[in-house]
Amino acid sequence: MPTHTHLPEHPPAPDWHIAHWLNTPAPITLESLRGKVVVMHAFQMLCPACVSHGLPQAAAVRQAFAESAVAVIGIHTVFEHHRVMTHEALQVFAHEQRLRFPIGADMPGLEGPIPQTMAAYELRGTPSMVLIDKQGRLRLSHFGHLNDLALGAAIGQLLTEAA
Fold this sequence. Notes:
With about 160 residues, this protein is an alpha/beta fold. It has one domain: 3-Layer(aba) Sandwich (Glutaredoxin). It has four helices and seven strands. A seven-stranded mixed β-sheet has the order 1-7-6-3-4-5-2. It is globular, with a radius of gyration of 15 Å.
């Protein structure tokens, strides 16, 4: 089974369901990011692959592309160990990992352990990388680590498309 899905029909990206934000003075909406390519990285603090690969990759994307063209958004989406994944723990984690991009804490699931944004995007787990084009349409959803070159090429392709 492939680890990522290219979405040829380009459905609109679902809204985020965020309990609270870090590293931003105000809540962020997909509508406010129209005209930019959005790189959304879904992670958990206790996910080894997120810490070793996914979050450093998201930070590298933030450094490599102009903020005026590419928005990097972290979504902390907790589907296990809920009791220890507090707002305070996420703040400390983001500070210690030197994460400078905005991070939204996914709202708990309405029915069961799967958080609302994770369910809306049909994510299989963490780490997951999602690309949203300048019009707010889903273009790529990838579970697991995505090769840096493949990610850079995909972002570059979306940057060349008209807004």
